[in-house]
Amino acid sequence: MRYQNTYVTLDTRLYHEQQPTPLDNPRAGHFNTEVAKQLGWLDDDELMARWVKILGGQYVPAEFRPLSMAYAGHQFGQWAGQLGDGRGLLMAQVLDNNDKLQDLHLKGIGLTPYSRMGDGRAVLRSTIREYLCGHALTQLGIPSSNALGFVVSDTRVRRERMETGAALMRVADSHIRLGHVEWIASFAPDLLNEFTDYMIDTYYPECRQSETPVLAFLTAVVERTARMIADWQLIGFAHGVMNTDNLSITGSTLDFGPFGFMERFDPAWINNHSDHTGRYAYQNQPAIGHWNLNTWLPHFMRLEGVTRDTLADCLAPYEATFMQHYQQGLCRKLGLPHEKESLTLAFEWLTLLEDNLLDYTNSFRALLALVAPDDYSHEQQLLSTLTAELTDEASKVWQDWSTRYLAQLQSVSVKQALDSMRENNPVYVLRNSMAQRAITAAEQGQFEEVNRVFELLANPYNVQDIAIELDSKPPTPHAPQMPISCSS
Ligand code: AMP
Ligand code: MG
User: Fold this and answer.
1) Which residue has the CA at smallest separation from atom 18 of ligand 1?
2) Could you tell me if residue 202 is inside a domain?
3) I need a surface site. Which of 135, 210, 243, 251 has the fewest CB within 10 A?
4) What is the pTM of this model?
């Protein structure tokens, strides 16, 4: 691998260099060969031979420079003060095969100075959820952390019950969270200049071309965040814990806990069991992204040339960027040209889904069979299910809508429309029931289901032979939700 450990060259107040605390008897959970290839890990015989020991914290290659990072954050809208890597270590930074810097971060690997009341561990259940979520989003084409693999162990970890300890080697283009800057502002404000230079030079070098690099950088973070959240809304993803310590400065996200993929369409859906007020409900995500950035940006007023007004200019494009990306995406999902009539149809369609609690993923995909009834057998089944779930009254709405939708499609070629629909509407997302099934088997030592779900999600836009009925099956309407809450 081509190591480029630059974080460790920054001021030592920003991190604590330390070794992982090994897990007992680590064993392979899953290994992502594609990520290994991207990193250059696959070409290194020593890393390949010892990957289980490395992920289990039992062996640290000489080129690694493990450290825990300090950061802070706003959690559920409240200033939470210092947080930091309480159970994870940045192990190494490497240039991948696109010459892009990637962080290797081992999560669940013992106590650090930032552990607070925690035990420094992660349980198998949450490790598998994070592993599959990063993979699912990445393969859907949405910016996200991903992972090289995970291991399971004999270390026992106490949560509500005793559980199996595990560790995940997370891979992300950066582990710098919005909360890093919040930490600096509170605990080491003299570092802001140097740290901002580091963020720009490392992650946004193109901003150096601007006359005002800092403002160009901040605007770029705003725009990337807006686009990522638009992607989430389009695919039906709800992060669940959009605290400032979980959003990265590259317009990506870290830490998947109580996330969910929308099943029966309810914009007010709260997937995080601990989110009593619904702050992070699916429909609130765009506004919360704005809230986070608005809380974050004023810290940069300490820098020369940055004022309240110039920061307002940086934040201003957020809404328009989000709306444009979201609306274009909706039109692409329907195979329609991006124009007013298409958007009217799109919003009517979403209302139909909401009023009838239809499955978000399946319903969009079913439209392929409406456009080309003979070519899409899986989608034909989805369409039959959809129409069977409609009341007589809703059927009339559907008939009227589908007639107008097909008329609007006349303005584009059928092939173009179908291509766009196939490329923007997945067949498979990570439903909670799928993750749960894989977890239950893994807790018994069986990893075949993790493998199968992983393979399925590697190609989410294609119907696959390895799929089972459960993969496309939403819960019954109004079924009680599986309780999934914060850090575990
Ligand atoms: P998360 O919910 O994973 O985003 O974590 C929020 C904060 O709590 C971060 O600072 C974590 O490092 C810390 N944390 C979560 N779980 C643990 C744990 N078991 N031990 C130590 N720190 C933890
Ligand atoms: Mg976090």
Assistant:
1) 118
2) no
3) 210
4) 0.97
